[in-house]
Amino acid sequence: MSSLSSKFGVVFFLLVLATTIGAAETAVVDLLSLGRMGEAISVLATRDDPESFNLLSRAYYATERWDDAVKWGERAVSLRPNDSNFHLWLARAYGQKAASSNPLAAAGIARKAKNEFERAVQLDPTNVQAHVDLAQYYTEAPAIMGGGLDKARNEAVQVAKYNPAESHLILARIAEKDKKYSEAEDQLRQATKQAKNSADYWLELAAFYRVRGQLNDMQKAVLTAVAQPNIAAEIYYEAGGELCLAGRDFPNAVQYLQQYLASGVLVETAPAFRAHYLLGQIYEKMGQHSAAESEYQASLSLAGGFDRARKALSQLQ
After folding, report:
1. Three-class secondary structure assignment of 180-193
2. CB contact at 8 A, 190 and 159
């Protein structure tokens, strides 16, 4: 996915639904997909099983409550230690907690993230997302914390067996870290050619251009992404987010986010409360403060614990 979800230290929005949950848990997953985090947390807090603890961790993760995400992720793993996805989610929670901690505490927490990513891969070598997240850790972390580009390249080799496009994505991130920008761009373009559904990788390319300051190229990549056939609804969410981050083409950004919210196909990778928050951010940048306030309120009505929306609303009032 785009940088909204793919960068270590930023919210990771490439989420995988648990496949072993029962009918009751499915209803809660629906709440997560709809972005109704307050309701999901209220339901899950009454339960006492590993699936519910994992879902509760994910709900807290989505609302950036990292301590709670770690707490419940650890409980899920303790009760089901051989579940690759449970370890993956706990690793993500540790990673985000490390990113928001002071430097002295962050190093130890980041090592816990590495250990959990590695355990997720060990338990299920076919878990592509675990490989991708582990490769991102290896790419971003210094050697003293277990990082290393050669380690990341090895993950790309493993991923190539299952998903060549994701392997190119890993190699692109390695090249970017190594300041080999032409190679990074080439790897991302290869990913768009290898992927069954290329829109995600066009958005990765858009994020690359945005970071490089190539905003015209970024905008073209976004337009190419949304022009792909049979795209998933969340592509509109990601496209709107990229334009918001770039400060470009706000009218289209609004249209994309509204189109996603109206699609009826909301997913956990792009929760509705965040779509409303992004709309609030865009309206605020456009000087439409009343519309921004309404969007922040809509975000908080779904996820009362989402501090970003609360702070943004407070600053407007």
Report:
1. CHHHHHHHHHHHHH
2. no
Answer for the pair 64, 37: CB distance below 8 angstroms, yes or no. no
Task: Return the amino acid letter for 27.
Answer: A
| CB-based burial label for 213 (10 Å; 0-12, 13-18, 19+) | exposed
Residue at 106: amino acid letter: A
- Global pTM reads 0.88
The CB-based long-range contact list for 148-155 (8 Å cut-off, 24+ gap) reads 149/174, 149/177, 149/178, 155/121, 155/131
- Per residue in 200-235, pLDDT tens? 999 999 999 999 999 999 999 999 999 999 999 999
Q: Can you give the three-state secondary structure of 75-112, one letter per residue?
A: HHHHHCCCCHHHHHHHHHHHHHHHHCCCHHHHHHHHHH
